[in-house]
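Sat 14:20. Reprocessing the chain from the morning session after the first attempt stalled halfway. Input below, unchanged.
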Amino acid sequence: QALLAESGGGLVQAGGPLRLSCATDRDIFRSNTLGWYRQVPGKQRELVATITSVGSTYYADSVKDRSIISRDNAKNTMYLQMISLKSEDNGVYYCNTIPTMRVNGGVYWGQGTQVTVSS
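Finished this time. Tokens:
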């Protein structure tokens, strides 16, 4: 079972909404600040939003005012809701802990979920 499992991506019309989900296990979820990252080909992975274990949030300027990050403690799941999607939101979205999770000496990433915004 994957330690981090992202879902919810897909093809979305520009201007439309999207909700991404990140499921993880209880120990990882409850004790860590969690975040969403976006990877675009040819660019470094970008941190777009974070949420602490007590619900404090941070948003990158690129998604600020269009996004809500949240966590459901009962489901050990984190969400990223976005509206008014733009072409700049294209990319593969990953979730991770803050700082990023390390497994066997390397940074662990899940499979991510692809978001494609059509104009």
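The chain has a mean pLDDT of 95.
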